[in-house]
Amino acid sequence: MPIPFARHVPFLDLLGVELLRFEEGETEIALTLREELCNSWQVAHGGVVMALLDVAMAHATRAPRKPEEEPDPRGVVTIEMKSTFMRPALGRVRCIGKLLHRSAALAFCEATLVDAEGGRLAHATGTFKFLSGLPAGGRRIHSPEASD
User: Fold this and answer.
1) How far apart are CA 140 and CA 133, in angstroms?
2) Alpha-carbon gap, residue 87 to 115, rounded angstroms
C-alpha cells in the first residue's frame, strides 16, 4: 500500500511513482509502466529508469535510520550518479534505495531496479548533498521572465 511522500514532487505524480517503504536508511518505490513512459522499443525509457534510481537513493538519504528516529528534514540534490542498465524494464517495477554512508553534508547511496519477480534490471550509485534551501530562494526557483 503506497504511503505519502514526505515532500511533494510534481514530477513523481506525473510518472505515477508510489512510495512503498521509507525506513532504516532504505526506501522502496514502485511504478507501473505506461506507453508514454516507454521508448521506441516499447520498454521503459532510460530517463524513467534513471529517475527511479535517483528518487529511491535521494529518499534513502533522508529515511530514518532507526525506528525511533524522525526523517531528516533537509532536502538533497544529486551531485553525481553512475547507472548500469542490465535488462529492459517492462510492466510493474520496484526500486530499492539504500543509504551506504552519511556525513554532515553528503550521503552515499545505491539503488537497484527490479521486475515483478525480483530480477535486476538496473543498478546505480550516487552522491547527494544536503541542503536546507536552494540558493534561488528556498524551494522555489525564480524565473528570469517573471515580473516582480
Assistant:
1) 9
2) 10
Domain spans of the chain? 10-131
**For residue 4, what pLDDT is reported?**
78
Please name the fold of domain 10-131.
Thiol Ester Dehydrase; Chain A (3.10.129)
Structure pTM?
Answer: 0.88
CB contact at 8 A, 94 and 132: no
pLDDT in tens, 62-98: 999 888 888 988 889 999 999 999 999 999 999 999 9
DSSP string, 37-101: GB-TTSSB-HHHHHHHHHHHHHHHHHS-SSTTPPPP-SEEEEEEEEEEE-S---SEEEEEEEEEE
pLDDT band at 20 (very low <50, low <70, confident <90, very high): very high
Distances (CA, A) of 117 to 7, 11, 30, 111, 114: 29, 27, 13, 17, 8
Nearest alpha carbon to residue 20 among 136, 121, 114: 114
Here the cell at position 51 is 529517475
